[in-house]
Write a structure and sequence with these properties.
Layout: E1 7-10, H1 17-28, E2 31-34, H2 35-43, H3 47-72, E3 78-81, H4 90-97, E4 101-106, H5 109-116, H6 130-148, E5 151-154, H7 160-181
Parallel strand pairs: 1-3, 1-4, 2-3, 4-5
The structure holds adenosine-5'-diphosphate (ADP), shikimate-3-phosphate (S3P) and magnesium ion (MG).
The site of shikimate-3-phosphate has 11 residues, from helix 1.
């Protein structure tokens, strides 16, 4: 088992945060939490319902509350997959930079589009032109993901298991470098 602090995955919709988070948590013997699922459980409603009734702003408030409660609770030593918009609020970015190992799962817009086209549970993509939406979001958010992340892992040309292995080896290398420096 690798010893590590909380691992938090960030990146755009379709980067594979939920899928890879679950896989690496199993390999590391850590609990897995998907922040979107925490928000849904707390609300007793799904994300499309929250966006419809409370707007994106209402969802963002719930997202910050869920992130704060995850970090404050002694859930500790777990893997957390965030939603793609977690970096939009400064208060979230401040929380992310504190204490956790944050990994940016990078995916190109074409891969984001391909991977998100299979489902309709992402309200921001229920538009006539999801590619334009993903492109705009990427322009704004890519620098923010890089700002909060300790490590970046490219996911485009890899299957989920291979991305998970790459994330695990990147974490191992990072932690062994930290140990040798201290
Ligand atoms: N590396 C990958 N290659 C191909 N498909 C992937 C990859 N990672 C995730 N997927 C698929 O893409 C879709 C979105 O993945 P998901 O984990 O929900 O992304 P996120 O949580 O970042 O939005 C799922 O159908 C998942 O199986
Ligand atoms: O990018 C975003 O703003 C969002 C991403 C979604 O999560 P995934 O990135 O896991 O799809 C979910 O939090 C919500 O639909 C909003
Ligand atoms: Mg997800």
């Amino acid at each position: 088992m690798i010893k590590a602090p909380n691992i938090i995955l960030v990146g755009p919709m379709g980067a594979g945060k939920t899928t890879i988070g679950r896989l690496i948590s199993q390999s590391m013997g850590k609990e897995f939490y998907d922040l979107d699922k925490v928000i849904e459980d707390n609300a007793g409603a799904d994300i499309p319902w929250i966006f419809e009734r409370e707007g994106e702003d209402g969802f963002r408030k719930r997202e910050t509350q869920a992130l704060e409660s995850m970090i404050q609770s002694d859930a500790g030593d777990c893997v957390i997959a965030t939603g793609g918009g977690i970096v939009m609020r400064k208060e979230n970015r401040d929380i992310l930079r504190e204490g956790a190992l944050v990994i940016y799962l990078y995916a190109s817009v074409s891969q984001q589009l391909y991977r998100t086209s299979k489902s309709s549970h992402r309200p921001l993509l229920q538009t006539g032109d999801p590619k334009a939406t993903l492109t705009k979001l990427f322009e704004v958010r890519d620098p923010l993901y890089r700002d909060v992340a300790t490590l970046v892992v490219e996911t485009d040309a890899r299957h989920p298991r291979s991305v998970a292995n790459k994330v695990l080896s990147t974490i191992k290398r990072h932690l062994s470098m930290e140990t040798s420096l201290s």
